[in-house]
Write a structure and sequence with these properties.
membrane; transmembrane helix; transmembrane; Mpo1-like
Length: 116
């Protein structure tokens, strides 16, 4: 899957994530918002740490690790967006689709569909 769209394609794509009517429409846009490899890697690290925090919260029976997991996931992703991708995360305008996109991209990185 080629996630780097030509500049002409990016110009014609909707810039407001709220314009998408389904996640299937949103996900290709989501991937163009993650064309920077470092940003994708930071998302991947943050998502992995989040999963580990959820597992540790269950194992240790310490729900406070759920908050740590949330901070890891969003913290790494936002550093990727503001520091490397130079855009605003879609989670500000489309939180559910963005959350779903995070996990779809995480899966697609594991499956080799999105370059790591």
């Amino acid at each position: 899957m080629d996630i780097s769209a030509p500049a002409a394609d990016k110009a014609t794509a909707p810039t407001d994530p709220r314009a998408f009517k389904s996640f299937a429409e949103f996900y290709p846009f989501y991937l163009t918002e993650h064309s920077n490899r470092t940003c994708r890697r930071l998302h991947f690290v943050g998502s992995t740490l989040s999963l580990l925090c959820v597992a540790w919260a269950v194992i240790s029976r310490q729900p406070s690790f759920l908050l740590v997991g949330l901070l890891c996931g969003y913290g790494f992703a936002w550093v990727g967006h503001f520091g490397f991708e130079k855009n605003k995360p879609a989670s500000f305008k489309r939180p559910l689709y963005s959350f779903m996109g995070d996990w779809a991209m995480y899966r697609d990185i594991w499956l080799g569909r999105v370059p790591f």
